[in-house]
Design goal:
By secondary structure, the protein is mainly beta. It contains 1 helix and 10 strands. The chain is elongated.
């Protein structure tokens, strides 16, 4: 805040830290537009010993690590997620297409916001949030 002195000059009498309202709105819009269920999820098969982890970052990069306990092999695949509006899903559920970055096939998953879980569209995997 500025106040004039006796000779008409201004001097600083108070410095306040204020947040830029536009920056706050942009930040809020950015968080809302991030349509990705950011976090780490895991799945353990009841039979066969397959363990998978799925990590999703804010840019929609999804990393799936699969550990096959029978032979100890670990396979890592990286995908770019996008919302799949071509699939009809119930309210509270969002469908995603995972397109491989490092080769392989597309995968399709759905996120249930009420259950905070991801499911493979094929029904083979139901990942639960771990972080």
């Amino acid at each position: 805040m500025f106040q004039p002195t006796e000779n008409g000059l201004y001097r600083i009498v108070k410095i306040e830290e204020v947040e830029n309202e536009v920056e706050q709105q942009n930040e809020s819009a950015s968080q809302q537009s991030s349509a990705f269920p950011i976090g780490t999820y895991s799945y353990v098969a009841e039979v066969g010993g397959l363990r998978t982890s799925l990590t999703i970052d804010s840019s929609g990069i999804a990393t799936i690590k699969e550990l096959y306990s029978g032979n100890g092999e670990v396979q890592t695949n990286i995908y770019q997620m996008s919302v799949d509006n071509t699939v009809t899903v119930p309210d509270g559920v969002t469908a995603y297409l995972l397109q491989p970055v490092n080769g392989g096939d597309n995968r399709a998953v759905s996120y249930d916001a009420t259950q905070n879980s991801l499911s493979d569209i094929t029904g083979n995997f139901d990942w639960e949030r771990t972080e």
